Structure formats: structure tokens, C-alpha cells
Amino acid sequence: MKNLFKSKTASKVCYLIISFILALSLTICALSAFVKMTVFSKDFLTDTVNNSNYYADLCDEITDSLIDLGDASGLNKSFFEDLVDEVLVREGVQSYIDSFYAGEKLSVSTDRFSRDLRESIAQYAQSRGIKDYSGESVDFFVKEASKIYADNIKISYLSSLQKSYLNYNRILTIVTIAAAVVSVLLILFLILTNEWKHRACRYIFYSFSGSGLFVLGIPAIVLSSGLIGKITIITRALNDLYTTYLTTFFTNMFIVAAMLLVISFVMLFVHFKLRPDET
Amino acid sequence: MKKKSEKKKRILRLIAIPVAFCLLLYLAVFAVGYPMFSDILSIGSVFLSDKQVDYSKEYENIFVPTGDSKDTVDASEVEFPGINKQFGDLKIKGRNVDAKLFFGDGDIALRNGVGVYAGSFVPGYGKTILVAGHNNTYFNGLKNVKKGDVVTIRTSWGNYKYKINKTAILKDTDKKAFDLSADEENLVLYTCYPFDTLGLTEKRFFVYADKISGPEIVGLYE
Description:
The structure holds 2 protein chains of 2 kinds.
Chain A: H1 8-37, H2 42-51, H3 54-71, H4 77-80, H5 86-102, H6 111-127, H7 136-153, H8 158-193, H9 197-225, H10 236-274
Helix pairs in contact in A: 1-8, 1-9, 2-10, 3-7, 3-10, 6-7, 8-9, 9-10
Chain B: H1 2-44, E1 60-61, E2 72-74, E3 85-92, E4 97-103, H2 107-112, E5 113-116, E6 128-132, E7 150-155, E8 158-171, E9 186-192, E10 203-213, E11 216-218
Parallel strand pairs in B: 1-3, 2-11, 4-5, 6-9
Antiparallel strand pairs in B: 3-4, 3-7, 5-6, 7-8, 8-10, 9-10
């Protein structure tokens, strides 16, 4: 190795190239691990759904759509006021998310909603002295109402992403592990081939800080550009969900950048500590 | 002096090299990922807009009632309504039909009144005007209409009257229910059927009326 790095300049250039490759592998490792812990994590989506106003907005939207249907079905607005149960909506959405991450077929069970709706119709009819409330027209109404319910429970665009999720999930694990192994090997190489350990620390500092700055730049660009605020999705509930999701995602990226930068400063500190005093 | 400049150089290096690495990483990502990112960005741009989304349930009213109508009105004097804008009202005297008239028959229109199907025409155009309304609200009174009843539509550019010539109960998929390519101005009102019962059916109640008065819009294609 010493023969290889005969010239001082050539040796410096080689080490700089190696530390750049280390920066690259660190970035890949950090970002793929981060994406795996966020986009590819059921908990991240569940937390976002719970932390946004999604359920309340969703219940309002389902109720509004049902009121419109009721206007064509002989049912007054008051009938729908407490019809949509937020607990049932929560269970439905959670089950939909669970199925997505488990790779199961995405569907929404409307059995309980239909049953509750029929019971409410029966009570409504009895309270108004209506005897005929179980015919074909009521069945058709329940079917249409259940369709509205199911369509709202489904998180739009998720179904079209499931196949990609399943494919990339496995690849991402391999990429994270491979990048981590390469990073460790390069760090070991830098430490073991440098006679002066403070120099190794300096090269490792370059890698971590370069990678940290790169990761820092992504959320800084996205969040300062106001791009997320420009998202326009047809319903308020979904719009809030997706904007909260992306804002949380990019904000959390700052943590990854901070971790990389903290390690880099530790390496810089060690570098100064190990460096022989200049006299 | 030499020592000081050496120290300066070293510090500069500690800043410059990480920045250079960062820029090189962006360059590498751009070079390798450009085809993928351009696809993602073009798909993403579908969901981006400079205009804030309006989720309010409010609507705009551009209807200004006018007095006696002339025989014709120039197209330049007509403010053609946008979707979900109230541009007039619709009444059938003595039949309990009195509703705000919107352009478009979406949720906002039908919650607040009745709406002209956006693929049909507004009064004065000389074509078919197809108006939808809910049978539990603004078009509940259609159950009372009779042949010979007069439907009045008021707009900002003139007042129109149409005489009902027939009613029909048809399936919602019946393509013969109305003719949007008709060359004579005619009014078609429709709502869900039957009235005042619980539930939904595929049947619709249609009311057909012919124009008897109201200004014709001229200069449309000039």
C-alpha cells in the first residue's frame, strides 16, 4: 500500500476519492434506512393519519356525500348527522393500511356500516310512521351509501403503489445492508492504511460532513420552495393527510442530516485531538 | 506568517472539501437519477397547482335580476356562468318549485338549488337546457306539475318562460330521455323518482317544456 501511494499528492488524491466513495455509500445507507423507516413503515403512515385531522375530515366528507344521496332518497339531513361512526372509520382505515403493508388484497368491509344504516333507516321510518322501508329502493340506497363509505375509506393512490412497495421493500433492505457494509469497510481501510490516525479522522470527517450537507439540502430545498403547499388533491381529508405526511417526512430528514453532521464533528474533534502539536 | 497562511488553508480545506463532496453527490444523483426523477416530477406535477384549493361549500352568485326582456341580447352583454355559480332562478308558479339556478349539477349546486348540466346549454342559446335537482328538496314540487304549466327562468340577461308539454318516468340510462343536439330551445327538468318514499331507484322523473318567450342570444360566433 505504501508503494502504491509513493507520491504524496497521489496518495492525497486517492484518499480523497475513497472518502468521496465513503460519502456516497453513507448517503445511500442513511437515505435508504430513512426511507425504510418512514415511507416503508406502517407505523409512520398510521402516526401521520392519527396526527393529522384525517378522521374528522373524512367523517365530514362521508356525511356530506350521504346527505346528497339522502336528498335523492327521501332522507332528511338530520338522519345523517350522527350516522358515520368515527370509531368504525378509524378501524376501516387502519385495516386498509394493514392490508397494504401486509401485501394483502386491498378491500373495505362495509358489512357493519350497511347493518347500522339499515337499523337507522328502520328507526327513522318507524318514527315517521313509514311502513314500506325494506324494498328494492332501500336496498339500492344502502348499496350506494356503502359504496360512498368504502370509496372514502380507501386511501387514494395507495392501491396503485402496493406492487411497487412490495418490490422495493426487499431491495431497500439489501441496499441498506450493502451500503452499510461498504461504509464500514471504507472506514476501516482509511483507519488502517493511514499511519497518522488524525488524517484518517479528517477523511472520515469529509465523508460524513459531505453526506450530511447533501441530506440537509434535500428537505431545505423542498420545504423552503413551498412545493408541499402547492399540492392539490380533490378532498380536504386526503390533501391534509398527504401534506402532513410529506412535511413530516422531510422534517424528519433533518434529523438524519443532523446525525451525520454530529458524527462528522466528532471525527473533526478526534482529528484535532490526535494531531501532533505544531511546534 | 507562513504558518498562519497554512492554518488558514487547512481550515478552508475543512470547509471546501465537504461542500465539494455535497455538490458532487448532487451531480451524481442528478446524472444517475434524472430519468427516474423526471418521471416522478411529471407525475407529481399533476397534483401541484399555484392556486389554493377551495374546499368551502360556498358558491358565487352572479345573478342580477333584470326587468322586461328584449327579443335579443348580444353575447358580449352576457356573463356566461362558471361551474357552481348561481346565474338565475327557476320557478313554477303554484307548484311549489322555487329554486336558485346554478351552472353545473354537482354537489354544491344541488345542495343549494338546481343545476344546469354543464354539457347542455343556458337559456337563450336556442338549444336544450337540462336541469337537475333533488326530489327531496328543490324539485320535490315537480310531482305536482301538469301539462300547460309555465316554468320561469330569470337570468341576468333576460327572463324566459317555457310551457310544459309532457312528463315521463324513465330509467337514468335511457339515452332517449333528452336530445342535447336539438336545434329548438327546449327545457328538460329531471329528478329522482318516486317522490316522498325512502330509498333510491334508477328511475327518473322528466319534465319537458318548450320556450314561449325570452331573449335570444345573438352574435355568439362573432
